[in-house]
Design a protein that fits this description.
Length: 620
């Protein structure tokens, strides 16, 4: 590659970002590093800047690549987009950002023929759903009936061991179930179905037993990033360790033990020390909180003790004044009054210029129970709020992003970002690149323009069925097969069709209401509504103002059994706010447990508020 690489000594962070000393050292050094830092410290930004450094200075030597592994697709996409923004499209082609699941699946799909026959998945295996796992156990001779708790307990054992399985370490029934899932059972009309945990175990086994594949991975990736490292499970860590232990690949892991909220899903408690010992990594601690205003950071700091963390002298970003940051605890007799007050507060925030999607309503769980009344009251103020559960994952899907951009282009002229995106992605799907004959590229652009113009003409419609046909037309134009060959997850036609159906239904609802395609698409994307979500879904996100609804015992119903995890969960919610956070309590709220609410079990949060002297208590 002919390129002028930047001198290492001359490199400075992209886009004018200033990094604290420990962050800068992590960006430029070439040692295995564990970065431990609190919320808003800029862990994700640090990874993006490190990618720029490695690529721009050719420290990640061409043609080697950087592999970034995240838990969720949106986190992986965000990081990829940030790197592209910081160091441009060309260099970021050597930055691969994917989820653990995708990484493991790609290894298995590519190299499965090297597995011995007994562990070789069938070519057409599908991703197992809960019902498939239950059914496989049933065929093996274990029926759970309605006992979900027992199924969860037993199900967790299925992939707890590395392969090959033997009766010395695991009961026969699990080996039998593995085999049924792996190979299917023709007699029982059961298709081969693998869980991602099984796929990860297979990938690990493959690499452990085939040094050529291990070498190929090492040769491909000179650097690896591990995001949200505190939530890594043992299965994921085993895979990472087998791939990169005692290789030349350098790992940068970033995480925060105070945000460890996935223990229930198998996060490995000892992950930080295991990594430090196994990879002889150095540890770096960051002292900044770039996100939150100083007074909110004071409240976060007050929690360090109960989170078993040493109190550190956190610094805030210089954009804030020391007196910035507001926090309220609002106590209500009932949830109707709560909804009245919150809708008025939100209305007044918007009237002061805060953007609607800079406000977020967070609940511990069961979004509808805690927020329906507020949604109704907000509607009376002409403010939309919606449960993001349906939308959050849907909007991150590639097929949905493509449809959104196509329909926006068809609805309005001059949308350069959408055009760039559609052009790039359709080129990729069609195998067109700059090496193609210019006439082919010209014809291709013309074809895309015609399709968009055609869609534009057909947008004058009255019935849902017509819209459905139009969406089908665009999918047909691109062709399902191209989607399926580019995006692993769309190999399942049912999965793909289901996404498209959701797009049709949800966009049509918005169009039916607004009779304006641009508004309909914007609404579908959530640009004009307040997002409502659980704490778990809010991880990694940030908003100007957070309304945490229902700081009550029944929301934290398992606090007695898992106080540490629930404290971390509470801390995640607390640390999403940039400038303001409001907590509410309502003595009366019909939940699945009771309508009388208390805060005896979680009273330590109330004590914490009192001790800081920052949280203003208001009784209604
Ligand atoms: N060096 C910096 N200077 C100014 N702003 C920064 C810097 N690093 C990050 N930020 C900003 O601070 C906010 C938090 O950054 P980021 O999301 O990277 O933090 P994080 O440590 O990953 O947070 P969390 O663990 O809470 O999800 C973002 O708005 C980001 O743009």
């Amino acid at each position: 590659m002919n390129r002028n690489w930047v001198d290492k000594e001359e490199w400075c962070p992209a886009d004018g970002f200033r990094l604290e000393a420990e962050a800068m050292d992590t960006v430029v050094n070439d040692k295995n590093t564990l970065v431990v830092a609190g919320p808003g410290a800029g862990k994700t930004e640090l990874l993006a800047q490190r990618a720029c450094f490695l690529l721009e200075t050719n420290t990640c030597r061409y043609p080697k690549k950087i592999l970034a592994i995240s838990f969720k697709k949106d986190a992986a996409d965000n990081l990829r987009e940030r790197v592209e923004l910081r160091c441009g499209k060309e260099l970021s082609l050597r930055f691969e950002s994917k989820t653990y699941d995708a990484f493991a699946k790609e290894i298995v799909d590519r190299f499965k023929n090297s597995l011995d026959e007994s562990y070789r998945p069938l070519n057409n295996y599908k991703i197992a759903e809960t019902k498939d796992i239950k059914r496989a156990f049933e065929i093996a001779g274990l029926n759970f009936g309605e006992n979900q708790t027992e199924f969860n307990r037993v199900g967790n054992i299925l992939s707890a061991n590395i392969l090959p399985l033997s009766t010395d370490c695991i009961a026969e029934i699990f080996i039998c179930t593995w085999n049924i899932l792996l190979k299917g059972s023709r007699n029982d009309n059961f298709e081969s179905s693998l869980t991602f945990e099984m796929i990860s175990r297979l990938a690990e086994y493959l690499i452990r037993t085939n040094r050529y594949i291990k070498k190929a991975i090492e040769m491909t990736y000179s650097h690896v990033f591990l995001d949200e490292f505190q939530d890594t499970t043992s299965i994921q860590y085993d895979l990472v360790k087998t791939c990169f232990f005692q290789t030349g690949t350098i790992i940068t892991a970033v995480g925060d033990s105070k945000q460890r909220i996935m223990l229930w899903a198998g996060a490995r408690k000892s992950i930080f020390s295991d990594f430090q010992n196994d990879f002889l990594s150095q540890k770096r601690t960051l002292m900044m909180n770039h996100r939150s205003a100083p007074r909110l950071v004071e409240i976060q700091k007050a929690m360090y003790n109960s989170l078993n963390e040493d109190i550190i002298d956190l610094k805030t970003n210089e954009k804030w004044n020391q007196e910035d940051g507001e926090a309220y605890l609002r106590l209500f007799e009932d949830y109707i009054k709560e909804a009245d007050v919150l809708s008025e507060e939100i209305d007044s925030l918007i009237s002061t210029g805060i953007k609607i999607n800079e406000i977020c309503i967070i609940v511990k769980q069961m979004v509808d129970v805690y927020s329906q009344e507020i949604i109704d009251k907000l509607a009376q103020h002409n403010i939309k709020a919606r449960n993001e559960a349906v939308y959050q994952d849907l909007l991150k899907e590639d097929v949905i992003k493509i449809l959104v951009s196509l329909f926006r282009l068809a609805s309005k002229d001059g949308m350069p970002d959408d055009w760039d995106y559609i052009y790039d992605i359709l080129c990729e799907l069609d195998g067109i690149d700059e090496s193609c004959n210019p006439q082919i590229i010209k014809d291709f652009i013309r074809k895309v323009e015609l399709m968009i113009n055609d869609t534009k003409k057909k947008l004058n419609i009255t019935y849902e069925e017509q819209f459905s046909d139009l969406v089908d037309y665009t999918i047909k134009y691109i062709s399902y097969e191209k989607f399926a060959s580019k995006f692993q997850q769309y190999k399942s036609r049912d999965y793909f069709d289901n996404l498209v159906e959701q797009f049709k239904r949800l966009v049509w609802i918005e169009y039916d209401e607004t009779k304006d395609w641009i508004k309909a698409i914007d609404n579908f994307e959530g640009k004009n509504s307040i997002p409502i979500m659980t704490i778990h879904k809010s991880k990694g996100l940030e908003y100007d103002t957070i309304f945490f609804v229902g700081l009550e015992d029944s929301a934290f119903w398992n606090f007695k059994n898992q106080p540490d995890e629930d404290r971390c969960t509470f801390f995640v919610a607390l640390s999403r706010a940039k400038r303001r956070i409001d907590f509410t309590f309502s003595s009366n709220r019909p939940t699945q447990f009771s309508s009388i609410q208390k805060h005896d079990c979680i009273n330590e949060f109330y004590e914490l508020f009192k001790d800081t002297g920052i949280v203003k208590k208001i009784e209604y």
